[in-house]
Amino acid sequence: MPHIAIISASVRTGRNSHRVALYFSNYLTEQGIATTEILDLNEYAFPVFEERLRLQPAPTAATLDFAARVRNADGIIIVTPEYNGSIPASLKNVTDLLYDEWHHKPIAISTVSAGPFGGSQVLISLQFTLWKMRALTVPAMFPVPKVHEAFDEQGTPTDKTATDKRAAGFIKELMWCVGAAAHVPGA
To answer: Which long-range contacts (CB under 8 A, 24 or more apart) does 129-133 make?
Structure first.
């Protein structure tokens, strides 16, 4: 069974995007699609980026742990809020921290906002950053507008049927990319 790491990108007090990370973890497990783990950037509490992992003389245990979890995952789901039309500093920080770990890694992106557009502005800049690192970004999107109304604190959607239907297409694209990447020599 494939293993999917879900990056919960927000470290903000009172964050709501983590609800969507919890939802995807539950959905993938309940549907028997993949094993999961949530890589919660709030728990890692990384310092501000100073140098890529491969150039650090003495990386922290947390940095090595995070890198190994990304490297060993068959695919990644990034759940990120949009902060002022862009990537949260916490996510940009870990994106730049790694490099080889992102190469040929299938990554699906779920954007989240408290407003009506679901964080759609963050998508382009994040896709471009990951593309520069040779990640395989999934073309399917999963925007979540008014996240505080769409999911409760445990990750349960207010409209489970509609949310699961949208998630099915999103996850199907990710899993296709995971399968394709597994068949590429040296990927």
So the answer is: 129/87, 129/92, 129/95, 130/95, 130/102, 133/95, 133/98, 133/99, 133/102, 133/103
Q: What is the pLDDT of residues 39-84, one digit of tens each?
A: 999 999 887 777 787 878 888 899 999 999 999 999 999 999 998 8
Question: CATH number of the domain that 61 lies in?
Answer: 3.40.50.360
Query: How does pLDDT run across 93-134, given as a tens digit for each residue?
Result: 999 999 999 999 999 999 999 888 888 889 888 999 999 999
Q: Is the pTM of this model over 0.85?
A: yes
Question: Domain limits at 152?
Answer: 3-182
